[in-house]
C-alpha cells in the first residue's frame, strides 16, 4: 500500500509555479527523505498533503484517501511535526498532548508519550511559552505520536534538538517504522536524512529532480567515492588512473588517492596497489548526500542552504546502526586489505 | 469531540492570559462607576441601565477588541493553527469553537458586570430593585456582545496578519458604532444617506431611514433593550427612556424582536461568510 501518492501535482501562486508536475510515491513502512533548497516547494507540498493548501491541478492521495475530499480522515491517522510553529503560549506541554489525544479519540497516556520524547514531566506542566526550542520540539514530537499514526510527517524535526535529542529522534523513527508506520522526513540536515531514510526525493524549483535510495543516486550521478592507500613505497609505473571506474589518481608522498566513479572500482584500486606494494593504511570516503544534493540542484558547494552537520562535500562514512545500512569503514590495517573476508 | 477540543484549548489559553482579567475587570469597574454616579440623580436602579447600555454600546466594543482580533489571525501568524488543524479538527469546528470561546468570556464579563450593577442597585437606590429587569438587560446585552464578538472573530478569520485584523475590527467598530449611530456631527450615516439621496434627486423617508439606522448591531442593541423598561415607557416618568422608545410609527423596528433578529443576523451572517472564505483559504 502507498502512504503518499501524488500524480501530476501542480501548485501555482499567481505567476510562481511552486510545485510542478510532481509524481511522488512513498510506500508504507518506509522512511522517506524529502530534500530541497529553500524555496524548492517542500513546504508547499507538505501543506498540500495536510490539506492546508489546495492543489492547482493533479491528484494527491494520502493513506489511500484524497486529501482534498477526506482531509479529516487523513489527519485522524497522521502525526505532524510542523516547522515554523509556535504552540499555544498558555497551554502546558501536557495539555497540548491531551488536546491531540482528545481530538483523535485516542487512549494514550500523555505522561508516557512525554517521557518517551524526553520531556521532563515537571516541565510538561509549565506553559509552553516558557519552553526552549528543543523542549517545544520534543513536545510537538509527543503530539505527533498520539494515536499510533500510520503516517508521520516531520518537517525539520531535528531543529533545536541537542545531540541527545537527535539520537532520540532517530530511535523513535526506528521504533515507529518497526511498528509499521511511514515517516516522511523533510530536513535541511542532510546527515540526519542520510542516517534515517530509506529513500530520498530531491525537489528543486518545484520539480522532483531525483527519487531513489541514496546509494542508487550515488551510482546514477557517478558520485562514487575516494579511496586512499598509504604504501611502503610507490610503485613505478603506478597505472591506477587507467583502471576501470577510476576518474583520477594522485600521489602525495607514499599515499595514493584515487577518485572512483563506482563502488567496485575502490576494490580494484586496492587490489592493484596490494599486488605492487605493501599497503600500510587505507581510508575510503563515500560521496555525501550533500554532494549528491549539490549535483542534483546545481547548487555551488559552498553556497549554504543545506547543512550537513559539519561535514564537507564528502563525508567519511561510518556505520549506521539506526538505518541498518552496512558500515563503509575507515580502516587502518597492516599490509593487507580485508573486505567481506576476502583477502586482496 | 473536535469542537470541544478546540474550545477547551482556546478557552484555557485565553483564560490564563491577562486579557480576560482586563475585559471583566474594566467592564465591571466602569459599570460600577456609572451605577454609583446615577444614584445621585435617580431613585430607580433600572434608570442606571440606560447609561450602562450606552457605555456598552460605545465603549465595550473597544474592550472586546483585544479579546477577539487575534482569535484566528494570531494563530495563523504564529503558526499555532497547524496544531489545531493538523489534528482531525475541521475548519468549521475550529471557527465555531473560537467564536464560542471568545463569546463565553465576553458574556461572562456582561454577567459579572450586571450582577455588580444589581448589587449596587440594592445598596444605593431607594426604590425596590426588580431583578427581572437586570436579567433581561444581561440577556439582551449578551446577545449584543455575542453578535459583535462574531463580527470581530469573523474579521480575524479572513485575515492572516494581526495588523490587518486590528485594522479590520477597529474599522468595523467605528462604522457600526459611532458612525452608524451618528455620534459625530458631520461624519455619520445620516450625512451619507442624505448625500446619496440628493445625488439621486430623491429623499429618504423617516421610516426608511429608521430601517437603515437600526440595521447595525450596535444601534439594534439600544433598540432591543425595550423590554428592560417595560411598564415605564410612555409614562413620562423618565424622559430619556420615552425619547428612546416612544414612537408614532408601527414600523417593524419598533419591536424588540426585530432588533434581536438584526443582531442575530449580523452574528450568524458574519461568521457564515467568514467561514465560507476560511473553508477554502490557503493556510500555508
Polypeptide structure, described:
The complex is a heterodimer of chains A (344) and B (284). Chain A has 344 residues and is α+β, with helices and mostly antiparallel strands. Chain A folds into 2 domains: 2-214, Rossmann fold; 217-337. Chain A has helices at residues 42-49, 71-76, 93-104, 110-116, 133-144, 163-179, 190-196, 214-220, 264-276, 289-297, and strands at residues 2-13, 16-27, 31-35, 57-62, 65-66, 78-81, 151-155, 182-186, 199-204, 207-212, 225-231, 246-252, 255-260, 279-287, 314-315, 338-339, 342-343. In chain A, strand 16 (338-339) and strand 17 form a beta hairpin. Chain B has one domain. Chain B is globular. Chain A binds chain B through residues 43-44, 47, 50-54, 72-73, 75-76, 78, 80, 82, 84-91, 95-96, 99-100, 102-105, 127, 140, 143, and chain B through 1-2, 4-5, 8-10, 12-17, 78-80, 82-83, 85-90, 280, 282-284.
What's the β-strand tally of chain A? Answer: 17
Put simply, the count of helices of chain A is 10
Biggest sheet statistics of chain A: 6 strands, mixed
Task: Characterize the largest beta sheet of chain B: strand count, sense, and whether it forms a barrel.
Answer: none
Strand content of chain B: under 5%
Q: How much helix is in the residues of chain B?
A: over 70%
Amino acid at each position: 500500500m502507498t502512504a503518499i501518492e501524488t500524480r501530476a501535482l501542480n501548485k501555482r501562486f499567481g505567476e510562481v509555479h511552486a510545485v510542478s508536475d510532481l509524481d511522488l510515491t512513498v510506500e508504507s513502512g518506509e522512511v522517506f527523505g524529502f530534500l530541497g533548497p529553500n524555496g524548492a516547494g517542500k513546504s508547499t507540498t507538505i501543506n498540500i498533503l495536510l490539506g492546508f493548501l489546495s492543489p492547482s491541478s493533479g491528484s494527491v492521495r494520502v493513506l489511500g484517501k484524497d486529501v482534498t475530499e477526506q482531509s479529516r480522515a487523513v489527519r485522524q491517522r497522521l502525526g505532524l511535526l510542523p516547522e515554523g510553529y509556535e504552540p499555544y503560549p498558555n497551554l502546558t506541554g501536557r495539555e497540548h498532548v491531551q488536546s491531540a489525544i482528545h481530538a483523535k479519540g485516542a487512549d494514550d497516556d500523555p505522561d508516557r508519550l512525554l517521557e518517551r520524547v524526553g520531556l521532563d514531566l515537571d516541565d510538561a506542566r509549565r506553559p509552553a511559552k516558557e519552553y526552549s526550542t528543543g523542549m517545544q520540539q520534543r513536545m510537538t514530537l509527543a503530539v505527533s505520536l498520539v494515536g499510533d499514526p500510520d503516517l508521520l510527517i516531520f518537517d525539520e524535526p531535528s531543529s533545536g534538538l541537542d545531540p541527545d535529542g537527535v539520537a532520540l529522534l532517530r530511535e523513535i523513527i526506528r521504533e515507529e517504522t518497526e511498528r509499521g508506520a511511514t515517516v516522511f522526513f523533510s530536513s535541511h540536515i542532510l546527515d540526519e536524512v542520510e542516517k534515517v531514510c530509506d529513500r530520498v526525493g530531491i525537489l528543486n524549483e518545484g520539480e522532483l529532480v531525483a527519487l531513489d535510495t541514496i546509494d542508487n543516486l550515488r551510482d546514477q550521478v557517478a558520485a562514487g567515492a575516494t579511496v586512499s592507500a598509504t604504501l611502503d613505497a610507490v610503485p613505478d609505473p603506478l597505472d591506477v588512473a587507467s583502471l576501470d571506474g577510476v576518474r583520477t589518481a594522485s600521489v602525495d608522498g607514499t599515499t595514493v588517492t584515487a577518485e572512483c566513479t563506482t563502488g567496485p572500482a575502490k576494490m580494484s584500486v586496492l587490489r592493484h596497489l596490494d599486488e605492487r606494494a605493501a599497503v600500510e593504511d587505507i581510508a575510503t570516503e563515500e560521496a555525501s548526500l550533500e554532494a549528491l544534493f549539490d549535483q542534483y540542484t546545481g547548487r555551488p558547494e559552498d553556497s549554504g542552504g543545506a547543512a550537513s552537520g559539519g561535514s564537507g562535500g564528502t563525508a567519511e562514512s561510518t556505520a549506521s546502526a539506526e538505518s541498518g545500512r552496512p558500515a563503509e569503514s575507515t580502516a587502518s590495517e597492516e599490509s593487507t586489505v580485508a573486505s567481506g573476508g576476502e583477502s586482496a | 469531540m473536535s469542537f470541544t477540543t478546540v474550545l477547551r484549548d482556546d478557552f484555557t489559553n485565553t483564560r490564563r492570559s491577562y486579557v480576560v482579567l482586563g475585559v471583566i475587570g474594566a467592564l465591571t469597574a466602569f459599570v460600577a462607576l456609572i451605577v454609583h454616579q446615577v444614584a445621585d440623580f435617580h431613585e430607580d436602579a433600572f434608570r442606571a441601565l440606560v447609561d450602562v447600555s450606552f457605555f456598552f454600546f460605545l465603549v465595550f466594543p473597544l474592550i472586546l477588541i483585544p479579546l477577539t482580533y487575534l482569535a484566528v489571525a494570531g494563530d495563523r501568524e504564529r503558526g499555532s493553527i497547524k496544531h489545531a488543524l493538523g489534528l482531525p479538527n475541521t475548519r468549521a469546528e475550529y471557527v465555531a469553537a473560537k467564536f464560542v470561546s471568545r463569546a463565553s468570556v465576553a458574556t461572562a464579563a456582561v454577567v459579572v458586570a450586571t450582577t455588580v450593577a444589581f448589587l449596587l442597585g440594592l445598596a444605593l437606590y431607594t426604590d425596590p430593585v426588580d431583578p427581572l429587569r437586570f436579567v433581561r438587560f444581561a440577556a439582551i446585552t449578551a446577545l449584543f456582545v455575542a453578535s459583535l464578538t462574531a463580527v470581530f472573530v469573523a474579521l480575524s478569520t479572513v485575515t492572516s496578519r494581526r495588523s490587518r485584523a486590528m485594522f479590520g475590527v477597529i474599522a468595523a467598530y467605528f462604522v457600526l458604532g459611532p458612525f452608524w449611530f451618528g455620534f459625530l456631527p458631520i461624519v455619520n450615516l445620516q450625512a451619507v444617506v442624505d448625500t446619496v439621496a440628493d445625488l439621486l434627486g430623491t429623499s429618504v423617508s423617516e421610516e426608511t431611514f429608521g430601517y437603515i439606522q437600526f440595521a447595525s448591531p450596535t444601534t439594534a442593541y439600544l433598540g432591543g433593550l425595550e423590554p428592560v423598561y417595560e411598564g415605564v415607557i410612555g409614562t413620562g416618568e423618565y424622559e430619556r427612556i420615552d425619547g428612546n422608545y416612544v414612537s408614532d410609527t408601527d414600523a417593524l423596528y419598533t419591536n424588540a424582536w426585530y432588533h434581536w433578529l438584526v443582531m442575530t443576523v449580523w452574528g450568524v451572517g458574519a461568521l457564515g461568510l467568514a467561514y465560507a472564505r476560511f473553508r477554502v483559504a490557503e493556510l500555508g
